[in-house]
């Protein structure tokens, strides 16, 4: 068995990269006919792309979660989607609009139960204040 081709050292690779960068910078600064970096000869291995090295993304990726976790997550997101306010203006589709819509039934129940007594008490106080009589 003969001696195989020796791999370049890290220093040779770095020197080659620096040379290429310098050549690119010199190509911008000097005309194409003659560049000073052309005089530097360093071994550079040029690899041609192999057809097997290309990553084809035509196949679907494997799922990241189990089917049970996906169904549970979808169910939770469906519930959240149902709570989103579908108002007449885009401003109603906010957290404030959502809270307003959720509080509306509770506020109605509270007002139905307490508003008549509250109004009666306040009217009685105002009458007492105007007439100068205490309650």
Provide a short characterization of the protein structure:
The protein folds into 2 domains: 10-44; 67-131, no CATH class.
Helix content: 40-55%
Annotation field: number of helices: 3
Radius of gyration based on Cα positions: 40 Å
- What series of H and E elements makes up the topology? HHH
Low-confidence stretches: none
The oligomeric state is single chain
Domains, number: 2
Distance between the termini: 117 Å
Structural class by sheet pairing and helices: mainly alpha
Content of β-strand:
under 5%
The tally of strands reads: 0
Q: How is the main sheet built? A: none
Query: What is the 3D shape?
Result: elongated
Mean pLDDT: 75
Keywords:
single chain; 135 residues; mainly alpha; 3 helices; elongated
Explained architecture:
With 135 residues, this protein is mainly alpha-helical. It folds into two domains: 35 residues; 65 residues, no CATH class. It is built from three helices and no strands. The longest helix is centred in the C-terminal third of the chain and has 37 residues. The radius of gyration is 40 Å and the shape is elongated. The N and C termini lie far apart (117 Å). 0% of the residues are buried. The mean pLDDT is 75.
